[in-house]
Amino acid sequence: MTWVELPDDTGFGIDNLPLGVFLGGGRVGFRHGVRIGDLVLDLFAMTDDLIHHRSTLDHFLVAGPGLWQDRREQVTEWLTDERNRVRVEPHLLPLDDVRMCRPIGVADYVDFYSSKAHAENVGRLFRLDGDPLPPNWRHLPIGYHGRAGTVEVSGTPVVRPCGQLGPPSDGLPPFGPTRRLDFEAEVGFVVGAPSEPGERVAVTDFAEHVFGVCLVDDWSARDLQAWEYVPLGPFLGKSFQTSMSPWIVPLAALEAARLPAPPRDTELLPYLRDDDARWGLDLTLEVRLNGEVVSRPLFRDMYWTPAQQLAHLTVNGAALSPGELFASGTVSGATPDRWGSLLELTADGTRPLTLADGTTRTFLEDGDVVTVTASAPGPGGSRIGFGDVTGTVLPAR
Ligand SMILES: O=C(O)/C=C/C(=O)CC(=O)CC(=O)O
Ligand SMILES: [Ca+2]
Ligand SMILES: [Mg+2]
């Protein structure tokens, strides 16, 4: 039990304790903070440790699980033992008084493609003939390298990108603002502890390297993407911006949310076998368009787990850096109420969605606001919140 007064049904109780980076609240410079209820505990003020006075969490995360756990225990004690109240209370700042920043340096960014339903839906829409799943899909978690430098924190507006919109009809390809701007609701994984070049990270060593989990929106311009992606994959159709939520929920808060791997019909190479790893996660996402829920994707529907993604990412010996991000890929399930992109929800713009205000959408319009939230079960029936990743679409420049 914490002595901090919490709002009813908060997802940010004493069992969560996510980390973020903030400015403001009457404090000088960047600070690392822990969220409890609708308050932020200033970690630099509490510890006097300069590691918590940096613009990203990377310098803290690099230390690895030993320090992560020590800090978590320390914060738990500050917030539960009433005797600490006089010392701690002045450093609890209202969330409304601070500005949350991008929490990590994003040394690298990879996006996977791990929902079978999503891969099949997109395959059917983008590649009209043949099996919607490519032959490699069941043997490895497919991914692409995204643009790390354009990963922005939630709240950063999304400027509609311009580009080549498709093949030439006569002469030159059409050029202009995308007409098919989309969201992709995803879950992100933050690497804390690096690995050595040449080292492979086993599925069972996932928690030795990954600190925690956030939400990601992989904004996508479908017309740019469909024209450019052969044969090297997504490029400018996705690199204009990717958004991430500001609070990183530690894996340590997700013990009650862990699930066995989903059933799979194809034998895997040993480095991808995860029967004992239990890194399926019971996260329920909600996607809102202008405040209205348009989808409730379940992360338990994912075919490849984040532990397999990390094992695959490093099987060639590629080293991990502190503060890198990899995302799950769009979280979609078997039924339309669980599809995580408009591409799927509107069948590539052929079946418009009708919103509560009577307007319809095929793809996003200027002024639209997309918000992804999530929650997971915590210990003893509590709930672990993730906050949200949100973005407002601005007209093209
Ligand atoms: O199948 C394709 O050509 C591309 C599909 C995507 O847009 C997928 C992507 O970004 C990965 C994902 O979110 O699952
Ligand atoms: Ca994606
Ligand atoms: Mg993107």
Descriptive notes:
Mg(2+) binds at residues 218, 238, 242. Pfam families: FAA_hydrolase, FAA_hydrolase_N. Its EC number is 3.7.1.2. There is one protein chain. The protein is of the alpha+beta class. The protein folds into two domains: 19-100, Fumarylacetoacetase, N-terminal domain (SH3 type barrels), CATH 2.30.30.230; 109-394, Fumarylacetoacetase-like, C-terminal domain (Fumarylacetoacetate hydrolase, domain 2). The protein contains ten helices and 26 strands. Strands 6, 7, 8, 13, 14, 16, 17 and 22 form an eight-stranded mixed sheet that branches. A five-stranded antiparallel sheet has the order 4-3-2-1-5. A five-stranded mixed sheet has the order 9-26-25-20-21, with no helix packed on it. Strand 23 and strand 24 (360-361) form a beta hairpin. The longest helix is centred in the first third of the chain and has 16 residues, at 65-80. The mean pLDDT is 97. It binds the ligand O=C(O)/C=C/C(=O)CC(=O)CC(=O)O, calcium ion (CA) and magnesium ion (MG). Magnesium ion (MG) binds next to loops. The site of the ligand O=C(O)/C=C/C(=O)CC(=O)CC(=O)O has 12 residues, from helix 5.
Give a topology summary:
Elements: E1 19-24, E2 31-36, E3 39-42, H1 43-47, H2 58-61, H3 65-80, H4 85-88, E4 92-94, E5 98-100, E6 109-112, H5 116-126, E7 143-145, E8 151-153, E9 158-159, E10 162-164, E11 175-177, E12 181-182, E13 185-191, H6 206-209, E14 210-217, E15 220-221, H7 222-228, H8 236-239, E16 242-244, E17 249-250, E18 258-259, E19 280-281, E20 284-289, E21 292-295, H9 306-314, E22 324-327, H10 342-345, E23 353-354, E24 360-361, E25 369-377, E26 383-394
Parallel strand pairs: 6-22, 8-16, 9-26
Antiparallel strand pairs: 1-2, 1-5, 2-3, 3-4, 6-7, 10-11, 12-15, 13-14, 13-22, 14-16, 14-17, 18-19, 20-21, 20-25, 23-24, 25-26
